[in-house]
Amino acid sequence: MSHIDELRAGFLKFRDVSDPQERETFKELVDQGQKPRTLFVACCDSRVDPALITRSQPGELFVVRNIANLVPAYDGSEQLDEMAAALEFSVEHLDVENIVVMGHSRCAGVKALLTAVKNDTWSEGPLHNWLRIAETAAKDTVAQDSHLPEAEQLKACGKRALALSMQRLASYPSVQSKLKAQSLALHAWFFSMGRMQLEAYDPWSKAFQDIT
Ligand SMILES: [Zn+2]
Fold first, then answer.
1. pTM of the predicted model as reported, rounded to 2 decimal places
2. Residue 59: CB partners within 8 Å, gap ≥ 6?
């Protein structure tokens, strides 16, 4: 069976779900509209599906996924900016209460970023252009953590990129006003896939702490 056939069969299973409560909940979402309480920014990596790993149901998470779960700095320009559009919609129109940015261990995007910085081998393609927005996180990792094993360097770089994303989120106008009104909270999580551990960033200590 091709993967497309498997995906189609999966949809039919979803459509024909036998649990009447689940079916009713989905129908209500369709009829009444979504009201997700959290904007979740995650990596494109197929292993870190936010709804799956948080056991969230349809309607609960508004999700943005990109390579290495990065948040670009707000520059106030009129250029196409997917993150700015998603923030405006989810924060101003859906009134989400939280934004979670989640990084993860063994992230190929973070590895590509760190490798490019270490070897100064940037390509002109869209992948490296995107990863460059977290270049400072990789430079700090090279400067401070080069003595660590590679897996630990990747974690350190991923966590620095998350801290950077926290700063940048607060620069978006739609986020700023909600933060002032204390109607929005920002969270950075790091998912260690092998250990099945979740850590959260504490902005006061500037460190990640186990929340499992
Ligand atoms: Zn990743």
1. 0.94
2. 25, 26, 29, 34, 35, 36
